[in-house]
## 1
Amino acid sequence: MPDTRHIRRQKGPVMIGMRVFVILYLFFLIAWPVSEVVKRTFAPVEQGAEGGFGAFWERLQDPAVQYAFSLTGTVALWAVIINTVFGVGISLLLVRYRFPGRRVLSVLVDLPMSVSPVVVGLALVLAYSSGSGWFGERLEGAGIFIIASTPGLIMATAFVSLPLVIREVVPTLQEIGTDSEMAAHSLGAGGWQTFRRITLPSIKWAVVYGVVLSMARSLGEFGAVKIVSRGAEFQGETATLLIQNRYNNFDESVAYAAAFVLVMASVLALVVVSLIRKEDHS
Amino acid sequence: MTQAAAAAKPPVAPGPAKRRSQGGGGGLFALTPTSGIGLGICLLWFTILVMLPLAAVTVASVEGGLGSFWNTLTDAQTFAALRLTVLEAAGVTVINAVVGTVIAWVLVRDQFWGKRIIDVVIDIPFALPTIVAGLVLLSLYGPQSPVGINIVNTRTGIFMALLFVTLPFVVRTVQPVLLELEGDVEEAAASLGASRATTFRRVILPSLVPAIAAGSSLGFARAISEFGSLVLISGNTPFKTEVASLKILKFLEGDNQAGAAAVAVLLLLVAVVVIVALDLISRRAARRA
């Protein structure tokens, strides 16, 4: 587009003004506060709290913190596995097959993203809590407890991150079309073989991308988990709940240490995602 | 840079380009027995995980009759919380529509050292867990603030938290549209004597409007339902800094499930309206393209 360059390259005072405004806005709203968190992680302002990497590491060794992170890891892992299996399944059905209610389902799968996490938690409690849920008593009779135990945390996390895999896989499936799948089919490949040898390799990066996004979202989920979990130390206290509890109990330095770990996890996710994008486009 | 833009796509489909279109992309097959079973299993899980719980909320909200549903929502304290939520969300949406477009504009049309850093900074609010987002703002603007500002338990604090978490929506929906905008129409307008302001208003803005609308509605839905980042910042004072999602939590802690469900149904309704609206916007855009 060399012929349009002179329009795009014009730099009036308006352009400079906008540039300065954007930089200042992002600096005060995001960049400075984020850097302050990093600073406080290694140089707590709390009375008597030690600074430095050693002290930060020490805080993470607290058994309650270890419990919180291992619970968060377990929950996120299960939620991601569930979402990947069902995500790929639902995407295939939505793109490749014709069935009544397909259009409605394709709109509904986006719903979990825009519903408030608090509403998600409340919904699960009203359906499955053993005290007041619709199915609570029956599940309790069968010895299954969902709310205030790990399955509830997994369901809450799976709920909020449900659309992430689907939204990556669906457009890719549409893009690749059905030609090679039909060819495989006409050469005598069965459904599973076609999926494994033809479809899966071509949606590979979309799936990985969706998995990374779900993982990041699952590790950081707070609202839905807050409602579903008992949230006490060693009793369903995930990493995000630990941050809230410690901050409110004037144990800020641990809250900042745990927050820093989650910040690093999300930065890692951002980096991985941008690498995948490059891989995918090349 | 398109890669970076795509990397932090908003939680719901960002724009027309990536939406699934009816019947698009390859043929549609009739269900085979295997895929029929697959569909059954997927629908069963979707029902257990999503539909039944949401139905339970809806039923619980009207269990005591429509009268009590109405009474809960019009109770002075609850109503004040709802009003504050809507007003804050609306204010944040207006600012985001303008500032988000300006940021997208600078990212696409301006060239300067450090622009890549800005591109990364935009993604941070989506990547951070919401509770950490709250902590981030508190570390600079909270108690023991190095700049001497304390936003805890103020409406300004809520406003800032909402601005923080909703920042990327408009930027990331407008940016790709702006990138694909052809320069020749602008040139034609300029050569016909239109000033730059007129060109922007008459030529560029109309093509950005669907993207701005989509990004704004996503941001609005997010602002209405925001919880995690507000927990530490809002002091939860009735009539002053209590928002809808925190009101639900308070109802639940007070063992008032019907009250919690009544407010929750309202939030659910907003979510449904927004996704249906987005679906319509993207369908219209796809039809035009």
## 2
Amino acid sequence: MKILPMPRPVIPLANPDTQPFWDGCAREELLLQRCSVCHAYRHPPSPICPNCLSDQCEWIRASGRGTVYTFVVVRQALRRAWQDMVPYVVAVIELDEGPHFLTNLVDVSPEAVTIGMPVEVVFAELDGTTMLPLFRPLEAAGTKP
Amino acid sequence: MSSISGRYAIVGVGESDVGQQLGRTGMALHLEACKRALTDAGLQKGAVDGLLTRAASSVPQANYSAVLAGRLGIQPTYISDVALSGASSASMILTAVAALEAGFCTTVLCVNGDAQTARANRRGHVTSWIEDFESPFGMLGAPITYGLPARRHMYEYGTTSEQFGAIAVACRKHASLNPNATFRTPITLADHQASRLVVDPYRLLDICPLTDGAGAVIITSAERARDLAQPPVYVLGMGQQNTHSDVQYAPSMTTIAMRGASRQAYAMAKLGPKDIDVAELYDCFTSVVLVTLEDYGFCEKGEGGAFVEGGRIELGGELPVNTGGGLLSQAHASGFLHITEAATQMRGAAGARQVIGAETAIVSGQCGATGINACLILGKDAN
């Protein structure tokens, strides 16, 4: 079982559209944009709402909880730099607020992952400045609902 | 748009040699396919006044269609780079017919393919803005982006790895009958199940290998086609749809771009799934064929797994699929060999793998983890 496998060969680079998201991660907060007009949540960050095209939005701290929508287990590294990471789980989380979120599942054996499993966000430090939002089973935090 | 059904035809077909480590550039393979298509059509290169292509990733090049025109020594009145990954091949046919209809040109050469194993030639890659939300999580390639919806299909409909395997077995069986295929040794379902998990749920034999190869066709008006060397293969229907770019954010992972693209194509051709004799379906992964069969209307949503079992998609079955071997066993060529194979089947010239009496073929080109699809319906007759 892998616990927060780090470091990683790729770190995200913020741009003006995504800066608030990564700033939130640095504070260990998962932020989502919510449209100020139609109130739809959205992810990944975008300058306009894909529902009503408004450019007015608020950054809301999400619950950080959701369920596994689908996942794969990468058993063979697709790039050499990731060889030490395998096996790892790439998963799509359906956040409680609605949007889907691509991430890794950690603190869990790949064989134990199932679709529908309740999960929560956990932040992992990448390089001293960047925090990466990963997810783990709710049970792992001792907060089983 | 239905008025153009049957008014344009494929009159020349060319495939480059295919394989691995051929030691040739993507452009060399393109040129070989072009020459063979011209020879096949009985046309001089000067007759070509339209050129549609896409730069091979092994030889990145801006304005590639202009570069290729220079290498062919032609001065077309219409060129374009059609850069839609796996959907680019079928989209070239749509674009060719549109350009012909618009009067931009009279004879269009379409060519696509790559030298995927020529790694040393790779100089760079194009990234999407979304990469910051993918690469740090190790989402690094197509087996992952396609594996996510494959797993979801298994969850929603009970689809099994063995059903994916039936597709790999069919493609390999067909490749064994195709002299221009890379992988010709037949495999069994047991071989598929014994192959290692690469990106679970995908096993090695669910994934198309990197290969070198290219294909080309020449399209002109039906009227002009009647005077040329080969029996014309008519473009009866075409359609394209885009449902998503990044599969993780797609509204549905299992009902996808194939549906809208095929509905347009069927409507133009005035045909339905029951009228189709051969299907050449983009198969970068086995599961993609399965969902395409569903969304192209050959079975109900969720029944693709049962549909591919029992030899139904093999030669001699109800709907032979990927009769040339497909990306899984013939060569990748960005799906262009699905078009050359469909045209060859319509000519009745496919030799040992000919579907007897085949008069209609459907072709799928897709990319973007099933989010972009281009559908073609080709026919032996103009309808």
## 3
Amino acid sequence: MTPIPLWRRYSRLFGPDPAADVKDELSFHLQAKIDDLVIQGWAPEAARQEAERQFGDLRAVQQIGVRIGEKMERRKRLKDYWSDSVQDVRYTFRTLGRDPSFAAISILILALAIGTNIAVFSVVNTLLLRPLPFPDSSRLVWIAPPPTGCGLSCATYSADAYEEFREQSRVYQDVTGYMAFTTPDNLRLTGRGEPEPATSIEVISNFFQVLGVQPVMGRLFTAEESRSGSHSIALLANAYWRRQFASDPAIVGKAIELNGAPVTIVGVLTDSFDFGAVFSPGAKVDLFTPLDLNLERDWGNIVTIVGRLKPGVTGAQALDDANRIAPNIYFNVKYPQTLGRYKGDLIPRPLKDYVTGKLRRSLIALWCAVGTILLIAGVNLSNLLLARAIARAKEFAVRGALGASRGRIVRQLLMESLVLSSAGAVLGLGLALMLIAWLAHQGSVALPLLSTLRIDGQALGWTVLVAVFTAMIFGLLPGLRIASGNLQEMLKDSGPGAGLGRKHERVRAALVIFEVALACVLLVSAGLLLRSFVKVLDVDLGFQPDRAASIKVDYDDSAPSEEASQAKRGEIFQQIIARVSALPGVQAAGMSDYLPLGPNREWDSPVPKGKIFSPGELPAPLVYVITPGFIRALGIRMHGRDFTWADGTHGERVVLINASAARVYWPGEDAVGKILMRGQEEDRVVGVVDDVHEETVEGGTGSQIYYPVMQQGPASAQLVVRTSLPPATLAASVLRALRELNPKQPSAEFRPIQTIVDRAVSPRRFFMLLVAAFAGLGLLLAALGIYGVISYSVTQQGQAIGIRMALGASVGQVQRQVLTSTLRLALAGMVLGTLGALAVARLISSLLFATSSWDLPTYLGMALALLLVAAISGYIPARRASGVNPMEVLRSN
Amino acid sequence: MDTAKLEFLRGTLDVLILKILVWGPLHGYAITNLLRRQSDDALLLEEGTLYPALWRLENKGLLDAEWGLSENNRKAKFYRLTPEGRRQLRHEVRTWEAYAAAVAKVLGATHPPLPEEMG
């Protein structure tokens, strides 16, 4: 075989052509055959026919050839691409290895940005995007009246209303509910050493079937089990089973002792069901018992309603159905006049919306914040790469001269950014895992579903997406700039004065300004949220949470008659309070059945004696049944007198009301000494107390009324102790005192009142802290960006600076010049950022509390912080510039 | 064409091509001629059938192809064995010989096999 001479190699100038190759090969065969036949003496035409006959089906062979050829060509192209990419990656590792500090800083920046993005995505995904952890959860609806000021009692329904609703509605597969008035630690687990507190919730027997929750062992409740007379049974929450019963595999069928009575465990629920996470964020529920509706008929509004819609039913149809049946529903079937009480009060909404709807705005804000971080990081990296690209201009020019196409060089640059962002993503994933693990264990944050937080496949997909997106935004710009530049120009010495360098510098300055502007927006948002949070903490709650703590008290006031029970209870409580008050460090002690910022209830609407109001005009105040001393223990201001132990069963019936109630009942008058009528019962108002924030820290307050325990039945007893010492130091002695009086007292938590307040503001604190952290990160990245640009331009202008200093410029002048250019960048960014911040602040105004979106101190603070950071990041290169030795610089060039 | 003969060809053509290329690179036409001469016209029915076999082998990486000039200065595609092809040839030859020996043994038998002892 002889190689083809150069001049005959033109035929495949425009790339490979398998079809032509096959044709050439076969025609060579035929031609050679014809030649041979002619030599053997065949006539040329006969020789051609003979050659074709001997060859066989030319066209079929040709087709096969083209097919195989194309296949090979495709494979070859793929192989080339792959080997090119491998080469690019290898080259990338080599270049990055040559500059490890650049690689480390870039990867760190990316890891922070990508990590926070993954973590926040997981939070958003868990709370907003992913459906609730129930099968077909989109069909679950929460039925509740529109929000009003009278607490939980106005957000729930009576037992009769529930049953009628379930019977008459046509759009539900089934309707269920649970007892809304449950307090934490409402049971004592006894018979196993020291009594331990446990939290149970009563659910309507079909509760788990409607939600679609399965037991891991045993069974769920049956319909008969919510009838009176059936023996006591309970279902265990999975976590409680594991914690309290050491995952006892034979627990089903065993009896445990609750409040001294035997209760049979019929099953253990699945691990994936966390009642608290869905229905009462942050609270843990240990066991479930069937709710006996017959026992609750006369207790007013007590259950919440959850329904599962039939397939295909829309929200509008559900609402129509509810409006249709609302007029036919009794509050209590015994009283015909209560028919239609719930008109307009049966409003179904998706359960998901009820659980997380309030958080939507906060979460979206959070998501935007981390998105901004990503953008800042991308711009930052873009800047760093651009600086490097200029430094590497010669390298690219040489590669170009050696035959690398522009596409190939851009691909190389993109590969570098992809490698960087992948490394950042891997590190960021680790960071996100830590963040998520930490967040999932923030039991004290009252956010729903937080405990179900995890990095899942979707989060991983998001990671890849973010990594590729970031690589694109920060790799493409430097790549395109290099590609658009004239390679020949670069090959010449591109000194500091070269036009290309200056153009690049303008681009870099623009990037820094953009970055500073973004940081500015983040800082203002964080500042506004921080101000709101401080304002929330400053809210006068109506009581003093510091140096007070509460513990749930167990007592037995069973007696043959209501009166005897009241008297007995009074005695027990008096004894407890006397005993606890005598402890050193205790300033005041008292009890109430409900504490502020927790569950609450209302009874009826008392009427001021001698006045006439139209129906519906008077509020139904929230009711608290308290002991003497409670008002002082909780630190509520009042005038008039507190209850005394003399306000007994047979004494005059007395009440305390809050200022809001007094304003409604006796506007412009002093309510002390006036009479409130509850039906025929006369209650004398002996004191007026300040409004207490009962439901939320941020919301307003409504009417409240306090009754003494000796005259009304409390739902439970929370002992509140005001101390002169830190509350924690008293926990042991208080519990010991309670145990001495009542050996059955469980070792309930001695909870500082401050933690109740902290819990109430925890979602706001949570979001504020996250946004503030992101703003800090943004500021840091912006500072890095400023530093990078200034520092680079100082290096580039080293010669010029040297000359100026040789000509007599002072150190101060040089420093001032560098600082001025720094601040000019920062100021431009701030102007742009302030405009952006004003727009963004308007968008987040619904997240603010008592803070205007124009809040001047916030903007000033932001400006100050940015200027300071800019000054610092400019000062370092400025010092370096002034340290330039003019002689050295001049000599070096 | 006799189908039995064709099937036979498909199985053996590949190994024959590999064998012929052991002595150096050749173009398709030369391979046909050598095949014809060495097998005394017995094996190749239609010359066209050779090419798909060549391309298949090239696709499998057993052959390498390169354009060059033929004896009378025409552009032709030359095939050469790759190391992989050489290995494959050795393997095929061994298999073939073992197979042929076994067949020969049976066909050349002069008396029936002894009954096997039952264990």
## 4
Amino acid sequence: MTLGRTESVSSEPIEDRYTGPGLRVEQVSKIYSRRKYWLGPVSQMEALRCISFSVRPGETLGLLGPNGAGKTTLLKIISTLLYPTSGKVEFFGRNVYENPVWARKTTGLITCDERSFYVRLTARQNLAFFAVLFGVPKKTANQRIAELLDTLGLTDSADRPYQSYSSGMRQKMAIARGLLSEPRVALYDEPTRSLDPLSARNIRTWILSNRERWPEQVRILATNQLVEAEMLCDRILVLNRGSIIAHGTVRQIRERWDKRDYAIHRISCSNLLPDGIAAAPERGLISVDHEPVEDGCSVLKMCTRKNSGGLSFGLSAIIESGASVLQCHTDEAPFDEVFCSLLMSEAGDPS
Amino acid sequence: MRLAWAFFKRDAVTALSYRISFAVQLLGNLLVLGLIYFIGKTLGATPLPALQAYGGNFLAFLLIGVALTDCAGVSLLTFAREIREGQLTGTLEATLLSPVRLPAILICSSLWSYFFSAIRFILYLGIGAALYGVSLQHANVGAAAILFLLTVLCFMGVGILWAAVVMVVKRGDTIITTLGYAVLLLGGVLFPSAVLPAWLQKLAQLVPLKHALDGMRLALLVGTPFSELTGIVWKLVLFTAILLPAGFISFHIAIQRAKQNGSLTEF
């Protein structure tokens, strides 16, 4: 690995000559070496092990994993705050460690650290300061700050000192700072960690809307909120103890790691006789529950054994009874259930 | 320029927002002036041969000693304090995420402190001249300005070097305090270094503040022409040429090390 100190920044737009992934992480490993005491033995802790993946422009990659899995370490390596022990990171084909200044211009890291602002300065003063640091021209900066404050609902409190802000407002400030320079690579590190459900939902909706606003932006979202990953990410990468243990779309991961041997279906029917359908475990239909009739529709909740033909049997039984099937919805396994199943499989727990 | 102003404004707003602290700081500076006056008045009556080279006025000697040492002290402490505060508040990482190069961040983050230090320097001299009867009529202001600048640059190097140490050891208050006392002893801040034993005088040659004070006193109190100060100026240039790059290189290494071992935000 080369950790360059100098760099040549080409003025040539990268898009003109580059068509590869927006972000490529190649064989990145991170080992922390520490001495417990002066001249004592060196202990080593492997934080990341041979991590490789890439993200296309416009794509959002979710980083999931339990606490200590290496998500934040990986984001810090990508943003050049931390050097990997081996491997490399490229933005649009350029090694970030050989072009650190350019890389930092290209990146926005949205941390969940509430402390990283100047507490005596107002929100506007803080953002104006960081806008200068990120080289945003003054006119654009004022406009962008006003826009971000407005979008994040901070306009009314923009001239209050940062220290008077609540956790949620501070989190919004971190988001505003990270996106001030309209970075081509946005790294979100648990952006809704300390937010109440309503604020979290607003932030998620806003992040989602940014996909349209900056269609070429590369986004990585490290989160422990599985709903968030499901809602915002095109692909998921699951880390555990520094290694990638699963990689794919939410659907692929759900299909691969859903360990339930049953499925639950909600079927809306008309003209269904009460208790007209009964369970038939030998045919794969484990149970049938009749839910209260709504708007003249009967709703059946059927539990079937997976890949047993239980659903077909149940639907046939409904039709044979003279009723009509209006709608059939199969409940997916909650993603947190799938995620736990994945982690436990990784830990060698067959349950 | 915009970057420098952003840092200056950030620090000015922060400093002025602590109104009582700011007022007390000003009061403290006035008390120092009172202290200088009474020490000078008590001891100034007896002419010391060692002071003759600087015009013979102990009060004036002391005033310039304290004023310039204050400036050197700012250099020594500002950078390390900035780093330490940045580590404690998390702003260091946020600043290092920006594309601004490290030397620019360091220099810009010291501007307010230097500005305030320059104000204090002028205040000390102004009050000294107006109220204490310190004569600056023959002062070689141009030479004094050059010496002031060189002192700032030279101690900036030491300060950045020290910030690199703080980056690694996190807490080093005791080391810097001890170093500060050594500089006070050898630099000739409160008394002429000519009264030190010969071996300490030799050691004092390695302290840039000694040369800076010698030059500043000669320029301001005696009005020594620049041509006679070139020896001192060259010594300060040499110290600056060694210490400033050493500071930046050490700090760069400290940051690289912190990025390697993940200790950037440890405190």
